[in-house]
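FORM 7B - TANDEM STRUCTURE REPORT

SECTION 1: FIRST PROTEIN
SEQUENCE AND TOKENS:
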Amino acid sequence: MKGTYTILLLILSNTFMTMAWYGHLKFKDLKWFENLGLISIVLISWGIAFFEYIFQVPANRIGFRENGGPFSLVELKVLQEVITLVVFMIFTLVFFKNETIKLNHIIGFGFLVLAVYFIFKK
């Protein structure tokens, strides 16, 4: 169960992270945000990233083997990276319609999935 909670918290964390890092690129499409300066954008993104930490820190504490969780530190990091890429790909396809996922992207993602396989292989 701790593994499931960890993964769900990582998904939530990475959703906020992706919004903080890349969501501001769509601000120009929103009337209220179109005239904001860089400092304002950074502060808004920083505020969004706060919620990333609210989920990321508990995910790592719950999931870490030395705290009674099922994952080693390396496994936690690899899980987080793959979840980040899945969330990013979904975000890109939903919010940035002009971006396309190409064959080389899919192949690269496949290699990352293989990395997860080898990291978790006992």
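SECTION 2: SECOND PROTEIN
SEQUENCE AND TOKENS:
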Amino acid sequence: MSSVPCPSHAIPDDPRFAVRRMMPSDVDIALSWAATEGWNPGLDDARAFFAADPHGFFVGTWDDAPIGCISAVAYGDAFGFIGLYIMCPDWRGKGFGMRLWNHGMAYLGARNIGLDGVLAQQPNYRKSGFVLAYRNVRYEGVASSDEDPVDGVTIVDALDIPFERLLDYDTRMFACARAAFLRAWLAQPQANARALVAFDGDALRGFAVIRRCGTGHKIGPLFADDLTTARALFRALVSVLPGETVFLDVPESNPAAVALAVEHSMQSVFETARMYTRAAPDVPLANVFGVTTFELG
């Protein structure tokens, strides 16, 4: 991570510090910082993230040079999500990060706001009104081509079904409709991403996406009506990536999702605290076997 050096006399209200909206190229910078922090973003995340809310990405600058960033994605008028909150190392602990944070929070206004934060930062998020809902656990494993398909579950390419039908299913599993993001998520280059849907007869029972990251591949979302369907989607996604590293971010409060990771010999490597400023959205966590992203919810 590179940035301009922090002068010893810098103070939080110094006029040389400013916050502005990101341009698309700035999102690439933010994701490169995220990679440096070890967050392992997807190779094509920038376009999809920006599509979710082009007005909700902000960069903090010193004399016009980027030194920090935050995303504050507004999903309609009722829900928003904070992510990509990063200050360059030389600039941390000096008050500039709080100015950037306040800018993002002000943009989201009175919405119910969610975030996935590192566990150690929970006290700081509580000061801004966030309350712990549950923990998400990142599992890491190695894909195998030896996984048998699951009987009774039909797997098809997500691009082969009407978008509105997929959006309806996704909306039931998320806090609200997110059509712009979903279109962009499905439009990732097929060389780096794959999206599948599970059917039982004519009934849509599950939806999952896997994407290539700086290290390995992440599955997200993995939504399914039951463990059998989730297992079928998981196996279909990883079976074409033998020997590759795979990550799955699982709500700890869904024991079936934890069981899915464990039965595929995945190991817990990281945890986040899912927190909200109001009551947790009415999301059926029993059907969430994999979080879409820690950055956007």
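SECTION 3: OBSERVATIONS ON SECOND PROTEIN
The domain at 137-290 is CATH 3.40.630.90 (Aminopeptidase).
The chain is about 25% helix and 35% strand.

SECTION 4: SIGNATURE
Preparer initials: ____
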